[in-house]
Each structure stands twice: as structure tokens, then as C-alpha cells.
Input
Amino acid sequence: MEAAAEWYALLRSGEATGGDQARWQSWLAASPDHRRAWGYVETVSRSFAPLQATPDPRRTADNLWAANGRVIRRRRAFAGIAVLAGSGLLGWAGWRHAALPGVVLAGLADHRTGTGELREIVLADGTRVWLGAVTAINEDYRAGLRRLKVVAGEILIDTAPDPARPFVVDTPHGRLRALGTRFTVRLEDGGSTFLAVYQGAVEVQTGAGDAAIVSAGRQLRFAATLGSQETADAAREAWSRGVLVARDIPLEQVVKELRPYRTGHLGVAPEVAGLRVFGSFPLRNTDETLAMLESALPIRIQRTLPWWVSIEAKGEAASR
Output
């Protein structure tokens, strides 16, 4: 895919020679994978062309979805998905590679955010919920129950007390019951739910019936079964304030955290993916974050196309 993007940039630059054209044709003919990669890059590049004049791509996405997802007609929902997926506005792999029904549900959710967007909402009972970028949740408040369902992305919850109505959060992998608490819930790409508890405790029950209590300062991942509990990093919830706090985490994890906040492709070369990162970085300005990383680590930020950015070992691009 990286090679396809580089070929595309060269051929559209106006500087390609006849020899370059011949080498591109040879590369294209060498493998079906090359042809598929070229088709993908060409399609997405065409989709981005009309967005060049749009000051805020997220506004384009918002215009495709009605303000209240519950009243969107099915036809409009599918049309919006087609445009969003084609343009790359969905941004995050969790949505981009999701099954179509899941993307439809995200577009129709009661509360949602787009690429690069953070939002705080206050529910009817006073519970505060922060939505990370590319997140969708549904709300179900009724007599005897307060319930949120996470469709995509990550939320931070600070629950309001209401002894008569339990507060639960459902994900595709199970149910979480808050026990007077502040906690974060995230759907992960690998098909699991991540839970970190900062205050109080949360009772977890998987779809298979496994159960556990996770107390403040602990975290775990679960799917059909429960993972082991680990120490939670309290600084991680800084994402709700637009800050990524990295405490000795690999560069590939930083890239994963940045992807929901950036339109287009953001990749990292295997040889630098394991570099350890320390610091605080702005999520709302990923270009600034990339510049900070480039100044602190032996890496180079390679912008092959406006929407295709790769992190490589320093000197690698220049040596090609």
C-alpha cells in the first residue's frame, strides 16, 4: 500500500519520466496485490479531491448525518456511509473495516462524534459522559434502569447517584454495572472491550457469564472471557481534555491513539514501532503531535500524499 501511494504521488506530480511510467507499469503487473493497492489509493484520492476546498472535513461528515440520528431515514443512512467510507472521513480502522450493520448503527446512534471530535454530554440524571473521536452510543433511560450501549469508540463516564436505578453499559462483549464510579470503556479493534476504573468499582459480566468486580485503579480487557486485571494508568483519561499522555508506551500505540483524530492514513514502519514514547501531546492538532514526535525520536514523518502519512526511520525516505 505504501508503494502504491508513492507511485500515485509521483505520477500525479508532473515530474514522472517515461522511465518512471514504465517502471510503474512493471510494478503494477508484478502482483495482483499491487493492482488492488493501486485501485484503493486511486479511488480514495479521487474521493478526497472535492474535500480539498472544505475548511472542516468533519462538517462535511456532520452534514451527511442529521443532528438526531434516530430520525435519519434508512436510505440517507446508507448514502452517508457510502460517501464517508469512500472519502476516508470515518478515519478510524474500527469503523472503516466494520461490518456494514455496525456502521449503520453508529450513524443512527443517539450520540456520536466524527474524526477528530471530542464531546461532553450531561444525561438527564446528571451523569456526565465524554465521547472520544469516532464514537457512537445509544441511551436508554427508563423507570428502574439507566443504560448506555457503546456502538463504537471510547467513552469516559462519571455517574450520578440514583439508588433506585442501576447504571449499566452494554458492549458487544458483555455488560458493565457501575458501583458509584468514574470509568472508561473502549471497543478495541481486536474484538474486545477495554475497561479502566478511576473511582468506585464496576461489575463486569461477559456474554458467556463470567463475572468480576474491577476496583478503582484497575483495568482489564474482555470478550467471551475475562482477561487478567492490571494497574490502570490514571493519566490516560486525559484524552477527555484533548491530551494524549504517553508514559513509556510504544510508538505504535501512540499512532493507534492518534488515528481517530486524523483523517486519512497514518502508518508506522515496523522498525520504529517499538520506540518508547514519553510526554503529553495534543489530540486536536495531530500535525503538531507528529512534529513533536519527529523532534524527540529518530524518525521521519513522510507525507506521500495529503491524506497519506507514514512514520519511518530517520534517513529511510532520503535513501530511496
User: Anything to note?
Assistant: Residues 2-51 form one domain. The chain has three domains: 2-51, 119-234, 242-313.
